Amino acid sequence: MCHMAIHQLVRIKLPNSLTGDVSWHTAAEAAISKPSDVAEEAEEVAAASPRIKLADGRHLAYRESGVPKSKANYKIIMVHGFGSSKEMSFLAPQELIDELGIYFLLYDRAGYGESDPNPKRSVKSEALDIEQLADQLELGSKFYVIGVSMGSYSTWSCIKHIPHRLAGVALVVPVVNYRWPSLPEKLIKDDYRRKLIHWGLLFAEFAPGLLRWWVTQKWLPSTSVMERNPVFFNSKDMDVLKVIPGFPMLTQEKLRQRVVFDTLHHDFKLAFTPWDFDPMDLSNPFPQNQRSVHIWQGYEDKVVPFELQRYVSSKLPWIQYHEVPDGGHLLVHYNGLCEAILRALLLGEEHPHYKPNIPKIVP
């Protein structure tokens, strides 16, 4: 899989995790179906993976990777993105995993994969799900969190709602919510992505049935057209897309399933409608700088513009900002990037190639 075949993977097979968010521009916003329909459909899928039972009775499916938990020096929870699952891809060298003693816990967020939907899902509930998962699997008082693409809103929520449980955080190509109050209008007013999200939310809210009908028509191009669209991906991303699976959850067959539509719809809305907090009002979860928070961004990312990430990082000086000069949105598929992410997060090692020279941003 990908040009890191020479490395053994932290078997996270889901290339869609990070790119999945791009699907906001197509079939991302699904129709809302009746709860009974969702329950019936969910019950038809027998869970093959281990699951925990949450306090509200829901189940979360998970997968473990890396060194055995009992021998781990570092325990990391991976948070997948839009249209993804616990099978996401994170290409880390096995040598590094063994050397540092890294244990990975990957899980299906609410409604994804083999996890139950959460009818009361919120930005805060995403963090509380992670906390319960960590407690039931006995990860200890503190753990690391890596959120990829749209999985970043769950990760921001951890910084807000469970900062005392965090050992360190990395947000990889995190989505930016244009509804954050602190984002200056002059920075986002001409951003075409903002307009696309706006229209997507309108359709999802007021015409979900029409949207659902549209994206499941056989005469429409398949999602493979979008996956190879240079509007969303730079040349390096396009090379990656030639050798990885695309967006299996976004096929027309999958999109016809009510439970899939509901999950995508709710996930999209939570990411891009107002939250219960503004990330730029957050305090440093590690005031003594004993640990760190990182943002990893591609300079050529066409899904999330680097200008927004630079602004967010400038407002939160306790965040360590890393920028890949020729990087797009599929950073976790690039040769050596996952190793760089882990070394920065766990060991505090900064790769000079990813340290941009950014002029001071005036609000």
UniProtKB/TrEMBL annotation:
Residues 76-334 form the AB hydrolase-1 domain. It comes from the Eukaryota. InterPro entries: AB_hydrolase_1 (IPR000073), AB_hydrolase_fold (IPR029058). Pfam families: Abhydrolase_6. This is AB hydrolase-1 domain-containing protein. The lineage of its organism: Eukaryota, Viridiplantae, Streptophyta, Embryophyta, Tracheophyta.
